[in-house]
Amino acid sequence: MIIVGVGVGPGLLTQEAIDVISNASVVYGSRRSIELAQAFIKCEALLIKDYKNLHLLPGDAVVLSTGDPMFSGLGKFATEKDRVVTGISSIQAACARFHVEMSNLAMITAHGRDPAPAKEALVREIGLGKNIFLLPADTFGPGEVALVLKEIGVNARICIYEDIGYPDERAVCGTVAEPPENHSDMYCILVVL
Length: 193
Description:
Number of domains: 2
Strand order of the largest sheet: 3-2-4-1-5
Strand content: 15-25%
Number of strands: 10
Oligomer: single chain
CATH superfamily of the largest domain: Tetrapyrrole methylase, C-terminal domain
Order of helices and strands: EHEHEEEHEHEHEEE
Shape: elongated
CATH class of the largest domain: Alpha Beta
Distance between the termini: 40 Å
Helix content: 10-25%
Largest sheet: 5 strands, parallel
């Protein structure tokens, strides 16, 4: 299996991803990932119904993963014999958009998970002086991040980047006292000390 990152939004596929997708004999993915790669798919494209059974797919199957497969993506299902092709992630896009150096960045995900470990990681990494990139959960977004920062006495810039690459793309920053509000459920958060 080849797991291919299709980028975080339209027009963000790498040349390597385009080449692999264009030469695939069968492609699997979510509806969104197939839409992002549609212009380069020349074979049958099937929706993934059960992510835990990816190992049952044919060896030459190309599996599309939004963003980069190795950050909260399908790369976690890769075995040693599988190939993983990187994609442009929301991390890269957000850091470029807000001019945040990635070398002092802690990456945290609450996406599709219990947000308690993400909250603990946020407190720990802020305590180490790190800027934070966070994939939020429905119950752990910019308002909740601001409350955590307020509780631990940290003042920081809180930025959200939503619908990256789409016509409604939006990038906005706020403070702990006035955090930005997301208008979409497809967004990420940067906390900049």
